## 1
Amino acid sequence: MARTITILGATGSIGRSTLDLIERESDRFDVVALTAQRDVDGLAAAARRTRAQRAVIGDAGLYGALKEALADSGVEAAAGEGAIIEAAELPADWTMGAIVGTAGLSPVMAALRRGQTVALANKESLVLAGGLMMQAAREAGATLLPVDSEHNAVFQCFPHDDPARVRRVILTASGGPFRSCTREEMARMTPAQAVKHPNWSMGAKISVDSATLMNKGLELIEAYHLFPVGHERLSVLVHPQSVVHSLVEYYDGSVLAQLGPADMRTPIAYTLAWPERMATPCTPLDLAQVGRLDFEEPDLVRFPALALAFQALREGGARPGVLNASNEVAVAAFLAGRIGFLDIAFIVETVLARYAPTAPATIDEALLIDAEARRVTEDALERKAA
Ligand code: NAD
Ligand code: MG
């Protein structure tokens, strides 16, 4: 029997890779819903190709355009933030959470509450409300499978029955495009240079996060929620080749790692087929061709965003949520040419110093903290410009 599938964020980098895999084996998968924010053409084309039941555009002003693009296709059109959540509420065996940023939280929560399988790429939702999400997944009996390559690697090596066997979880980081740059050089980097990742092709926001190493910081917090080892047993290792996707060190000294091509279709396929495996079109890893694997400690002085994330994780409570929201606004300001590259971490630090709410007890409280952190960040951006 075919598996029913929904993709939240179907037009992005992860969404398109997911579509590529399911379209290669279209008899194994039936598409329930696809969502996007503004890319009407990309959404409508994907919905037609996969014969989706429903296509949802987040920007309500684009409803007419979507309806027109889907005329005579048999695909139902819907629009608006609420309609994305309604799509996430439709029964589907497997849901991909690939919306970028905090906007992904409510749709992913809706999918988790259905108690089916959720493949999660949207790390920002876990950073903002990981405790509440994991609790919702447990209560509903949902299966949460990590898509992020590092967490997918850890998931494949982790002793799920007995986490006490783990001495350390080691997340690898490519180091991003500015790995060997000085602070002076980084100060002059443009958005175009920052989104040019050496190994991975990704959306703009995560590419900038990879350049500041905030991506690795968000991933530390993501790992904290996904794997019950506590923050003391989480660490980061820079590995420029992006071949070893992460490692789990056991108490006896054994270290298990997952290796693979730098192609997100491998971890996505793992979550699509889990607990089985499926074939992918990824170029197989050729270690002789790679030749050598390098590792080095991350530099927390040149990359202060990673230090801020370590600190937010140690302090806990609402700190990770404030870090995440202010980073999202600061990255958007950098991409819009409003601030320089080094200002991103500086702004996040300023906001963390100015806004320290208590830990959220509900998703609504987490979203309020997120909104207030964005306001404080806008304020910090305006003061900086003045
Ligand atoms: P992207 O920018 O390419 O795509 C984002 C998707 O979200 C698009 O479909 C877009 O329409 C939708 N979207 C954007 N804003 C929205 C909003 N306000 N409401 C509803 N939908 C909205 O991003 P991406 O690179 O595919 O990343 C998606 C998520 O996966 C991010 O959280 C990212 O950190 C994570 N991730 C990505 C990669 C990667 O290789 N691209 C790897 C690991 C994790
Ligand atoms: Mg990652």
Note: The first strand starts at residue 3 and ends at 8.
## 2
Amino acid sequence: MRKPTTALVSCLVLVCLLAIPALAGTMVTYANFPPAKTFPAVQMERWKTEVEKRTGGELTVQTFPGSTLLGAKNMLRGVQTGQADIGCISIAYYPGVFPLMSAVNLPVAFTSTEAASLTMWDLFLKYQPKEFKDVKVLAMFTSAPSQIMSKEPVRTLADLKGMELRASGSILRILNGLSARGVGMPMSETPEALQKGVVKGVVSSFDVLKDFNFAESCRHETIVNLPVYPFAVIMNKARWESLPGEVKMVLDDLAREQAQWTGQYLDNHINDSLNWSREQYQVEVHKLPPEEHAELKRLGEPLVDDWKADCAKAGIDAEAVLKDLLALQAKYESL
Ligand code: DTR
């Protein structure tokens, strides 16, 4: 029998080596801007676990929380250009870029994150907005309703006068209407701004009291039920197209469940965070006089008009979107 030539053996070895990565499946990177403890990063880890399990390891996900791969403001561009395969964006940090889905940031008084997140997902599915045409959307979810967390007590709206508060999106405008001083910045820059005294408080959902330890400096919490913030998990389009069909199916099937899971997680976590802050730092929770809630509502109204004007410019039927948003909110909040 003839012995195999050295060239043939080398060829076989090369073929085997090239086959190993194919057998090991595909690895994708997933960037996130806030730290690992916060809810956008917690949902990212849950998504990774489920994806790896459901694809039998065919897709593995390498996660980068805390702006270690991309930060809050370069996330969108970074995913579009392939610096990361997947990224989590806060829609409110990109004014004017996502007119349709910004509807979810309007002052419509969501009381549940689960309901807000499912509403957002259904709205996205129905309208397939072209503002996301350059990326693949893998998941959507929202923050919980936004509240005031401050160093000094805010017992009535008059206490807000001149107070520098960190916010973003539609809430900035509401604050300015109240003669507070809204300072816009992503959540990932807020710990430093609070520590340096650039801001005297934060408007966000109560999860941040524990997850960023804001309860230590913000001992006063005021319930104002301002808007939720919408988030989207997006993937580089070409990278998405390169995935095997069965992997794509697993990711698509997971999307709605991920919205619901994240909403439920955050609804529970809000209570946990508030209880922890009471025990740890004896924070006080204030309620505004009832008539001041009506004032907050009045201040939110022009935002809806502005949003409608943005939609008109982008050729979006704002009335139809708002009608659907309110119907979905009513449906999910009554479950
Ligand atoms: N309130 C929004 C969203 C938000 C709420 N909790 C966190 C934690 C980490 C990042 C963002 C958020 C905001 O202020 O950006």
Note: Residues 34, 38-40, 90, 143, 146, 168, 187, 204-205, 207-208, 229 surround D-tryptophan (CB under 6 Å).
